[in-house]
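It is worth pausing here to work through a concrete case rather than discussing structure prediction in the abstract. The textbook approach is simple: state the sequence, then state the predicted structure, then interpret. We follow exactly that order.
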Amino acid sequence: MDEETTIIDTNTRNEKIKNFFINNKKNFIIIISITLVLVVGYFSFDEIKKRNKIKLANQYNSAIIAFNAAEKENIVNKLTDIVNKHDTTYSPLALYFILDNDLIKNKNEINNLFDVLINQTNFEKEINNLIIYKKALYNSDFANENDLIQILNPIINSESIWKSHALYLMAEYFYSTNEYQKAKEFFNQILILPSSNSEIKLKSQKRINRDLGE
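Step two, the predicted structure:
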């Protein structure tokens, strides 16, 4: 009797499972189809990204290999185009090549390219902060106090690893303009900052002791 009951229960359970799959057949087909589309879409997107990366790498390499004075305008256009592709590898490399070889004289154009990297390219936070610092460094020879502070504020008002570098840049800026009290204030901020770069901290202490003592 127990065996018959067990057999009946098993058959009933199997029948319920069978009916469940039959009744939900359309739903299962839809779910499987959506899953396949998502999987194929993901791998297709990843493949497109890889191909675009290779294309951008070739464009960058051809530009710098062909670099010469006669081709300057064409190369600048290629490198500027790469910056505007918002690629986390080749866009900054293209801008740095422009800067290192002084290919663009117009400061506004350079700052606009920096802004493309800072505001439109998806860098990790500290990489983005580094680019902000490099923009400030570029501007430090000609920008006024307010402009320079405005550029560096995102770093100065954060706990970034580049904060002591930003403070040091401002301190040296004020030192170069003979505003020694302001310079000393920024150097002192570096000395009390727990996360200050050790080399920057040492330079700041030497500057205070040697040039800004009471």
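Step three, interpretation. The chain has a mean pLDDT of 83. Residues 127-214 form a domain with the Serine Threonine Protein Phosphatase 5, Tetratricopeptide repeat fold (CATH 1.25.40).
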